[in-house]
Design goal:
Layout: H1 3-20, E1 24-33, E2 36-49, E3 52-59, E4 65-67, E5 69-72, E6 80-82, E7 85-87, E8 119-121, E9 130-133, H2 138-141, E10 145-149, E11 168-173
Antiparallel strand pairs: 1-2, 1-11, 2-3, 3-9, 4-8, 5-10, 6-7, 10-11
């Protein structure tokens, strides 16, 4: 085989391997309460892009309005006990904070990286959104969970901690 033929063969093999790389993943999001994981509400898809992590939501059955939307440390949506009470989705752990910033400043701030833009649910209970998070990549989210909180998020720790989003109402483990 000529040198040109070898280069073409190697190039084709490398292109074939690129096709095997994981370019996107998803999470099936379920309702959660203190008793456990409930019915499926839809999916959230994550994909690496030039400007950061592309996130696409396709969710139904949520309460209309704005909801806190976060990436959490653990890939577990089970309830867990806190102060003698079972808490919905608590096994997901805290917001993803690999830099140990301890600050809640929103997706463009310098705080933890678990802050995602607010999830806006329409009057029919659907959330079909697309956004890019510049501080994350696919490898950061795999094996973690994505959580929807019952209320909105002000991206500050005042007047309530962690943006004041309240209880966890939906959760999905990211593959």
């Amino acid at each position: 085989m000529s040198k040109k033929g070898v280069n073409v063969a190697v190039g084709a093999a490398l292109l074939g391997m690129v096709g095997l790389a994981v370019a996107a993943t998803s999470a099936t999001v379920n309702s959660v309460d203190e008793k456990g994981v409930g019915k499926a509400l839809g999916t959230v898809t994550f994909e690496d892009g030039k400007s950061g992590l592309s996130v696409t939501t396709d969710l139904q059955g949520l309460t209309p309005g704005q909801h806190g939307f976060h990436l959490h440390e653990n890939g577990d949506c089970s309830p867990k006990e806190k102060d003698g009470k079972m808490v919905a989705g608590l096994a997901a752990g805290g917001h993803y904070d690999p830099d140990k910033s301890g600050r809640h400043e929103g997706p463009k701030g310098k705080g933890h990286r678990g802050d995602l833009p607010p999830l806006v649910v329409d009057k029919n209970g659907n959330a079909k959104e697309h956004f890019v998070v510049s501080r994350l990549k696919l490898a950061d989210v795999q094996g973690r969970s994505v959580v929807v909180h019952e209320g909105g998020d002000n991206f500050a720790d005042q007047p309530k901690p962690l943006g004041g989003g309240g209880n966890r109402v939906a959760c999905g483990v990211i593959k």
